[in-house]
Structure formats: C-alpha cells, structure tokens
Write a structure and sequence with these properties.
By secondary structure, the protein is an all-alpha fold. It contains 1 helix and no strands.
Length: 33
C-alpha cells in the first residue's frame, strides 16, 4: 500500500504524531511531579 500519493494524508499523520507525542510528554511531566 503506497500512501505517498496522498500528501494531505501524510501531513495529517505527521501532525497527529507530533501532537500525540507532545500530549504524552505533558502527561508524563504531570504525573512525574
């Protein structure tokens, strides 16, 4: 399956991953302290 043809999908996935990582980092900092 080649999704590289749909650039919008790739960009959306990249942004989703970034926001998810930021959310997890914030959550981890919240429970650590």
């Amino acid at each position: 399956m080649d999704f590289s043809k749909d650039e919008r999908l790739n960009n959306f996935d990249a942004e989703n991953e970034t926001y998810r990582l930021l959310f997890l980092a914030g959550f981890w900092n919240a429970i650590r302290y």
